[in-house]
Amino acid sequence: MAAKSNARPTYTQISQVSGVSEATVSRVLNGDDNVHPDRIKAVQDAVAKLGYKRNRAASSLASGRSGLIAVVIDDDLSIFSDPFWATVTSGISRVLMEHELQTLLMVANLNDTDGPVAHSLQGGEVDGAIFFQLHKDGLIKRLVKQGLPMVITGTPHTSNDFVFVDTDNFGGGLDATNHLFSRGCSKVSIITGDIETTAGRQRLDGYNQAYRKSGNVPNKRLIAQGDYSFESGKTAMLKLLQEVEDLDGVFACNDVMALGAIAAIEEFGKSVPHDIKVVGFDDSLLAQTSRPALTSVRQDIVALGEAAANLMIAQLKGETVEPVILSTALVIRESA
Amino acid sequence: MAAKSNARPTYTQISQVSGVSEATVSRVLNGDDNVHPDRIKAVQDAVAKLGYKRNRAASSLASGRSGLIAVVIDDDLSIFSDPFWATVTSGISRVLMEHELQTLLMVANLNDTDGPVAHSLQGGEVDGAIFFQLHKDGLIKRLVKQGLPMVITGTPHTSNDFVFVDTDNFGGGLDATNHLFSRGCSKVSIITGDIETTAGRQRLDGYNQAYRKSGNVPNKRLIAQGDYSFESGKTAMLKLLQEVEDLDGVFACNDVMALGAIAAIEEFGKSVPHDIKVVGFDDSLLAQTSRPALTSVRQDIVALGEAAANLMIAQLKGETVEPVILSTALVIRESA
DNA sequence: CGAAAGCCTGAAACCGCTTTCACAAACCGG
DNA sequence: CCGGTTTGTGAAAGCGGTTTCAGGCTTTCG
């Protein structure tokens, strides 16, 4: 193995070629000021000539900064049956890369506060962590205490000591419900998502507020609980149809349940949107391809990821940051 | 900052507590045999007592192994509108984690053979790379030449020097088409996906072979081209309906196009499955939630990711590996 | 019973980069 | 023109592991 092909250049070679010390090479490569322009030039030329690429391991070891940001996803498969999180991640990844940071993906069971993920995170392997969909916060609280910069995607319901980004779920619920009333509905029910999640509760709150302002009479019996699955949407809708008379509008807290609801309505012998109007949430692919095409609340998912990444970067710079709430837009199609 | 909270234990402390040299600590922690059981025990106790966690940067620097595997995704947004890749990634990530490897996610434009991703990959920052959906292979060829272990998800069409995993697209197309004939169809058309991709071509090949063996008469006019989008499926189907008489079966190369086709058929005044039977591919969420529910070719996507990860691990161990083809299963629902 | 072979072990070099520290040179006001 | 700052620089000490190397101790076998 003469002349090893993987013998990549180091500061030593740059130093020799450019005629400056390794210390100065480091300064130039890290954008330290206070280096004479001539030397900067010399180093840059040498770098270009040798095709130098920084060795991250060495750099991390010496500086204590790894350049890695963990994106931690709960090992709940449901997350991956939904393009939502993948899209958020792509937004995160792109922004991080622009700032020379790498995205370390960790799929793990977050209840396991002593698993390999918890170890990596606490072990200082990463410079920061972005969490998705926070359920249990034991691990996270510990990490905050350790001073690890963190961003949470989704509103944490346990505490607001965390930096987070989220869609305006309340506003989305409000808009969806208002839209149904403005379309002439007078008895509008809601199929909620998992009430354990803040997103689910906030959408419900939006619905309630819209109801109160509409001049119509809200009623607990109009509220059915689902869990974001197709089946739960269908079941909830059937129950509503049987229990509530003159129902003429439904706000389902995601598109999948909205489709379940539509299936139920049609099985029940009524039609959408003629008899009952339906609004979903997410504006996913499903909303566009279903028949009737689904009116749905759109959230800018890529922007959500970008916002998360930007909050992380701001923290890394030592800036104090505020939570970010992104607004939604109602996309009107056939179902309402 | 007295007693820094982040002053995590190192070999030095373990060495002191356990009374063995740092070299031996390393041997124990790396599973080197030839260490006296008593010493192993002593080290393990010290590790447990001190709550030691390995410093990856130091370890990488010294050993030349980073423990990082890149998952490289083409910056084509379409990838992220489809849960497919997210699911593959989750499979990869889980298997890698079981082997103490981390998943580094890179979303990038692969045509850019000189961008940051190309740099990282060539810079030895990762121990291996898993690519999705290979279009251009310039970068990849270079990496192979450098000896970077690689796995490609999807059959590369340019060369078979690569290690890859893929679904049995040919078999899936074959099964789908055979099923339509067995259901009594006699004139079956296909709506292809992007013919540029090998997956698209292989599914078409499967269709052709099934046709040849069926005793029915194949015909070029039965082949319509789509691009995996809903609209393309609809457009292609309308064209087929207008040009081909007595059409009674359609194999759409993914579920989204199948739904487009169903929409077209119903607009045309015919019904599914009564007049025309439809089979999709992917067995996605769409297939389960659409009405009529879609008969579709299922591929085990998580297994695809796991296979990719396992091939990577095998390469890392120095084993010679063969490409892996995963079989499909036809899931029969209402549409055919 | 002695020599060759094998097993375990610790000292020390090293991985490539960052950062402190000391010091020379250039600059300043008085 | 001199003590005192500023600037710019290189030598050298790490960062926390891994790995080579040589040597002490046991075995094994003729």
Could you describe the 3D structure shown?
- 2 copies of one chain form a homodimer.
- Chain A is α/β, with parallel strands linked by helices.
- Helix content of chain A is 45%, strand content 17%.
- Chain A has 14 helices and 12 strands.
- Chain A has helices spanning 11-18, 22-29, 37-50, 56-63, 77-80, 83-98, 116-122, 138-145, 169-182, 198-214, 230-243, 255-267, 285-289, 301-316; strands at residues 68-74, 102-108, 128-132, 150-153, 164-167, 188-192, 223-225, 249-252, 277-282, 295-299, 324-326, 328-331.
- In chain A, the strands form 2 sheets. Chain A has a 6-stranded parallel sheet with strand order 2-1-3-4-5-11, with helices on both faces. Chain A has a 6-stranded mixed sheet with strand order 7-6-8-9-10-12, with helices on both faces.
- In chain A, helix 13 links the parallel strand 9 (277-282) and strand 10.
- In chain A, helix 11 crosses helix 12.
- Chain A is elongated, with a radius of gyration of 26 Å.
- Chains A and B meet through helix 4, strand 1, helix 6, strand 2 and helix 7 of A and helix 4, strand 1, helix 6, strand 2 and helix 7 of B.
- Strand 2 (102-108) of chain A pairs antiparallel with strand 2 (102-108) of chain B, so a sheet runs across the interface.
- Chain B binds a DNA duplex (30 and 30 nucleotides) through helix 2 and helix 4.
